[in-house]
């Protein structure tokens, strides 16, 4: 008696769990909900947004209890408008022209300015245009017109640039055919694209499969002196084809992405504005022209009156030589993949800045940008840009200037639509993961000769009433509260290694074509900040397989960057309850030693083993160990080369590592090269002694 009871509201207290929702029903029928959260894990704005979404769920279910969960809309009108403001760039350039016309305008304004530098050769804008025009007129005479596919199989050279420009000027669409690709792959690309004419060079013609009814021109032996020098007058529409670039395909064969003139021209106009480039600037190009991002390196400088310095293949594969080229030409813009930047840094590149002046724009794309690489590049006082975009949306679609310690993607470029959607094609809330979809001016036609795959990946835009399309990237991403996009990884088995897009299914399909193999799966493993390809196989009953021979068989159809660095043979692949391969249970390849270890013998083998251990992050390397089975790849070869050059002034050809991958074989080649150097040193010592005697 005499006691009264009243409600007591406790003050702020620490959260017992990461996130708790307490619901209390009041006597009058009202329901109160309270979120308690760990402040170190969630921002107040995130919880506020979550509570609003919870309220919307309750409202819609109370209004219609039969409503399906997938039909519930979480976003408010204001949130949807905010996502559109972040993801839709309405900026469009009027009267967008094909890139070769943009270059012709620069010829008229800067005829005597240097346009192209390769090795010891320099061409002015007028000279480059004259060469391209003469070849274009020859192509027109041979029947090249809009929609004609022209194969280009040349090494990095003046002829490569001239051939690309001439094909565009003639109205044709070029199809890059990298001479280093396996013949089977080149043959498929040539047949699938339907090239009607091939531009090549005499010394590599034999590498390219010959097609019936296909005209072949050897650019280094072609006499074009009598061809006209004026710009061809070809009527081109923005929807006409500019090029077809082949990327890895999950069916076991590469797929050709068909890109339109308007998409390419509009992209270059956007890049001229941001990140930006001006007349008188210099760009050094290092990317293989079969990789679509090479289009930026070629057309961006030539569309604004700048200099294009084309690095030779030898230089692009040698870090120290590339560093010297950068010091020689002091570029204003340089583009590379994260792996390429790491090679440059490992070679001792210290940036090109003078004082605190930002003299170099570093464009980094092709694979995910890691925070440690951001730290290394920003420490060099450069202007760092993160670039994102699949081949299907024309080179880059999202770019961002990195001003702080982050790895976000940035914002869409001009005339680009960007959405992050769930599996029902509904926009996801800020902070929630979803698939990244891209649309706008940069969208490709689709996949050449693959209408079914085109329909699957290029879908109708559910937010557009004009019948436009969106491309499903297969990338997982989410919006941050500041409007930046955070990349979270892949939704499928497509990966990127050193900038090259790879479908693991294509590797698996080629493995299963081998008669001895019963099961095969390809995965990626990460070590020392780099990603390596690993194949796991099981053999048919009564069959055995040699991993070196298997690698040789794969090399007939797959480029070297798609050859697994390790091949692990298992009795059976581990399966889950659904009968699918359980990738998490696949053993680490380092735990399986297929070779009997034998100590390195002699000074050269010991020195080489020490280099391999350092580059590959291993504790032990034997004389019979296989470079690629230890996890080596083309970029790690460059690191080995740099250390060999520093230690013994020796540089082996890159192909040597593929043809003789055992440590003892490489050591023998190093020993063979060391002898002449030692003899040269002895000769120099004797000459020095003679000079000393004469002087004294």
Automatic annotation (TrEMBL):
The UniProt record lists the keyword Phosphoprotein: yes
InterPro entries reported in the protein's UniProt record: AA_adenyl_dom (IPR010071), ACP-like_sf (IPR036736), AMP-bd_C (IPR025110), AMP-bd_C_sf (IPR045851), AMP-binding (IPR020459), AMP-binding_CS (IPR020845), AMP-dep_synth/lig_dom (IPR000873), Condensation_dom (IPR001242)
PROSITE patterns: AMP_BINDING, CARRIER
One Pfam family linked to the record: AMP-binding
Recorded GO MF terms: catalytic activity; phosphopantetheine binding
Gene Ontology CC: cytoplasm
Domain Carrier: residue ranges: 599-674
Cofactor(s) required for function per UniProt: pantetheine 4'-phosphate
One BP annotation, GO: secondary metabolite biosynthetic process
Keywords on record: Phosphopantetheine, Phosphoprotein
NCBIfam families registered for this protein in UniProt: AA-adenyl-dom
Recorded family membership: Belongs to the ATP-dependent AMP-binding enzyme family.
The protein's name in its UniProt record: Amino acid adenylation domain-containing protein
């Amino acid at each position: 008696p005499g006691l009264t009871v009243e409600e007591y509201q406790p003050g702020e207290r620490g959260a017992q769990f990461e996130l708790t929702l307490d619901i209390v029903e009041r006597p009058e029928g009202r329901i109160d909900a309270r979120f308690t959260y760990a402040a170190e894990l969630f921002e107040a704005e995130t919880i506020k947004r979550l509570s609003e979404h919870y309220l919307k769920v309750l409202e819609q279910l109370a209004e219609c209890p039969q409503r399906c969960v997938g039909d519930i809309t979480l976003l408010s009108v204001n949130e949807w408008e905010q996502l559109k403001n972040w993801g839709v760039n309405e900026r469009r350039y009027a009267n967008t022209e094909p890139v070769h016309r943009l270059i012709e305008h620069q010829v008229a304004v800067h005829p005597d300015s240097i346009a192209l530098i390769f090795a010891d050769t320099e061409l002015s804008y007028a000279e480059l245009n004259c060469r391209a025009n003469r070849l274009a007129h020859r192509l027109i005479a041979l029947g090249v017109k809009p929609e004609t596919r022209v194969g280009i199989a040349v090494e990095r050279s003046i002829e490569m640039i001239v051939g690309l420009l001439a094909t565009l000027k003639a109205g044709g669409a070029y199809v890059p055919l990298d001479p280093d690709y396996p013949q089977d792959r080149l043959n498929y690309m040539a047949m699938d694209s339907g090239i009607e004419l091939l531009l090549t060079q005499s010394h590599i013609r034999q590498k390219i499969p010959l097609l019936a009814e296909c005209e072949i021109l050897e650019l280094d032996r072609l006499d074009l002196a009598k061809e006209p020098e004026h710009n061809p007058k070809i009527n081109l529409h923005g929807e006409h084809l500019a090029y077809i670039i082949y990327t890895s395909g999950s069916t076991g064969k590469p797929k050709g992405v068909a890109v339109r003139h308007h998409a390419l021209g509009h992209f270059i106009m956007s890049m001229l504005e941001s990140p930006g480039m001006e007349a008188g600037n210099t760009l050094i190009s290092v990317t293989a022209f079969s990789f679509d991002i090479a289009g930026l390196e070629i057309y961006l400088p030539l569309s604004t009156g700048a200099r294009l310095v084309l690095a030779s293949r030898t230089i692009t594969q040698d870090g120290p030589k590339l560093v010297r080229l950068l010091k020689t030409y002091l570029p204003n813009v340089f583009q590379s993949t994260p792996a390429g930047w790491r090679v440059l840094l490992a070679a001792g590149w210290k940036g090109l800045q003078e004082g605190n002046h930002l003299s170099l724009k570093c464009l980094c794309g092709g694979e995910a940008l890691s925070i440690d690489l951001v730290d290394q590049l920003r420490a060099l006082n450069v202007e760092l840009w993160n670039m994102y975009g699949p081949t299907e949306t024309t080179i880059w679609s999202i770019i961002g200037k990195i001003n702080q310690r982050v790895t976000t993607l940035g914002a869409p470029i001009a005339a680009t639509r960007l959405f992050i959607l769930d599996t029902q094609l509904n926009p996801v809330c800020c902070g929630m993961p979803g698939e990244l979809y891209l649309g706008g001016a940069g969208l490709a036609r689709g996949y050449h000769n693959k209408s079914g795959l085109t329909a699957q990946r290029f879908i109708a835009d559910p937010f557009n009433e004009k019948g436009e399309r969106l491309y499903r990237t297969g990338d997982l991403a989410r919006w941050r509260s500041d409007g930046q996009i955070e990349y979270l990884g892949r939704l499928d088995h497509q990966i990127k290694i050193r900038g090259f897009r790879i479908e693991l299914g294509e590797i698996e399909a080629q493995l299963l074509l081998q008669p001895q193999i019963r099961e095969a799966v390809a995965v990626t493993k990460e070590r020392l900040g780099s990603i390596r390809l690993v194949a796991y196989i099981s053999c048919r009953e009564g069959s055995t397989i040699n991993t070196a021979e298997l690698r040789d068989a794969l090399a007939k159809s797959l480029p070297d960057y798609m050859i697994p660095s390790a091949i692990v043979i298992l009795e059976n692949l581990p399966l889950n309850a659904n009968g699918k391969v359980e990738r998490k249970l696949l053993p680490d390849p380092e735990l399986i030693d297929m070779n009997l270890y034998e100590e390195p013998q002699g000074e050269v083998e010991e020195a080489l083993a020490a280099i391999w251990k350092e580059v590959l992050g291993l504790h032990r390397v034997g004389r019979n160990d296989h470079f690629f089975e230890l996890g080596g790849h083309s970029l790690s070869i460059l690191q080995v080369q740099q250390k060999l050059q520093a230690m013994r002034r020796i540089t082996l050809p890159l192909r040597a590592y593929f043809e003789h991958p055992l440590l003892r074989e490489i050591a023998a080649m190093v020993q063979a090269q060391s002898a002449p150097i030692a003899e040269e040193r002895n000769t120099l010592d004797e000459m020095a002694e003679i000079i000393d005697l004469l002087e004294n």
